[in-house]
Structures
1.
Amino acid sequence: MRPFIFRLSFLLSLAIFPVVIKAQEKMISPAKINSIKLIDLGGKESRVNLSKAVVFIFLSPECPLCKNYLPGLIKLQNANKSINFYGIIPGTSYSLKEINELKNEYGINFSLLTDREKRLSKYLGATTTPEVFLINKMGAITYSGLIDNWATSLGQKRLVITEKYLEQAIKDQLNGKQTFKKTIPVGCLINDI
């Protein structure tokens, strides 16, 4: 009986080990995130609250796709108060006034922060607006990429959304499912300005 139990536990450890490696490949450092200088809409340095799950949404005030997604993102945030949502505006192209105008026009109720030096963008590997990252409270990136499959390429959209990637990833996380998924974002490229 002992050899059987030993073999069984060995086989189970082999089955579990790749999941652990995959999770470690997608870990972020809360200390690194907190060392990155982000500016709030009042012009003050701000920190991200990583005590619970976080959604980072990389946005551009002039990107039409970002603007189209804002009402749905606000609704998603309202339905998931146990998760901190942060809109991140990378670079120096937009003034705080322009970002505040976007916030007021769309009624954005989650924090908007500027990543002027694009350190957070580079650390997470963000390349596009809109692009989202869902990070659990352990620091694992459980989802990154598209919000859903509405935009198929620049200027091309589906008539019907069939995959709600971010919403499903949030549901999986809240239900205790350990999933890791990445999609390729579609939108405006984050430039060097």
Note: The chain is about 40% helix and 20% strand.
2.
Amino acid sequence: MTDVKTLDNMLKKIVTSSSKTETTSLLYATYATIILSTELFKLNVDLVDFLTPILKKLQSQPEFSRLKRPIEFKEYVYKSRSLIIARFIRIIQKSDDKSIDILIEEAQALVNSKLNNHPKGRKDSLKPKKTRKNSVDELLKEFGRY
């Protein structure tokens, strides 16, 4: 199962969940999958374009607007996906209901855009390897192996 389909299933569970603890737990898993996915974001730098607007939207929420500094990740944070996850889990942990709704909407928008961009049955992941002649293999074929 691809990361996009996994995320779609997680988001469906989040929408149907009734308790806040279950929702936040599924949100942790959802954003960990998003951040770790090289299928969605090949390079760590690509995460900047996805996370920065989310952090700006969250900044307007009451629980984050009281902070002395704006919510943003410094450049060194984007060098490590595990560090990004650690910081983002803290943000989810401090979020209230409205912020959680924003996080769910952003994840849903990402999944919908990826589902619409990739038609079913198409594989983008790997290009077929070029076959080039290897002189050692040719010699072994010609003279046989003993």
Note: Residues 97-117 form the longest helix (21 residues).
3.
Amino acid sequence: MSTVARFTATTMISYDLLETIEDQLLAEMNDLRDSFNPLADRLPLADGLEILKVHFKAFHALLGPNGDRNFEAKMLEGFSKRFDALIPNDSPENELAKSVIGAAGFASLKYWLFNSDKIDGNQTIEVAEKILTKGALTYIRRLAQHNQQF
């Protein structure tokens, strides 16, 4: 077997392995998403955090600066997808709302993943849930009032 053929075969095996790992991680996140009722349940960020903790190294590598942007896009799509049954894709406003809500949840988990040495997972979830349930501007105003010095 030539060097080129060995390189090609090794590369294909590597990509197949990467795809298998990504598919398994996405399946866990999707199972969590599918079990979540946005109208009745609490936000599942704590459960998502547990999945990230179990597979910390894999998520850290895949979502890091040298990670797979397609994996990140699939995760973001999954985060906003749970709202498909509630919010139809019949207008740009609805699509944007789903995208923003999904991105906020994903960003919260990703923030913890890359800052776990600075912030506890429970703190991350607490802040994210306050922002998502009370609104970003309300949360920012509260922080600004708390930090104002006269």
Note: Residues 3-35 form the longest helix (33 residues).
4.
Amino acid sequence: MTEVRFVATCNAPVDVVFEYLDDYRNVVEYWHGMSRYQPVGELDQGLGSVFEAVSKVGPSTLKSTIKTVQWEKNVHVAYKSVSGMDTSTSFDFAVVDESHSSVEFRIEFRLPGGIAGRALEKTLEPFVSTTARKTAENITKKAEEYDAARRPGAGRGAADLPK
């Protein structure tokens, strides 16, 4: 098993960051290499929701079906693959202050045992680390943009203001 962790610090309140990350429609914006992330079934968020995912990690395109196995609003979300590559992903949210938060982003992946599996795992580890680092950077940027767009008067330039 290989585990990669990063922390994203956001200039946005924890509830806004959680709302942004918990919306499946935003996953392809912040998750580096993710090209498709769609719900399967009736639930599109929360405990028990299931998603089909397609992502590029280094030279490989990976397809997985991912299930939400833990979900606590503004605190923690965890996903586990139910098909495809054996992965676990989690987000732990923390309040820094009323307008800042942090998200610890963790990916674990397991490949088949034996010499070939261990060699492949070592080959993929740098790509997974890069993906996680870039995802953390994207979380910071995109969550802040999302927060700014939600504020009253957002998107109004000087030309839009009353004269």
Note: Strands lie at 2-10, 34-40, 50-57, 60-72, 76-84, 86-97, 100-110.
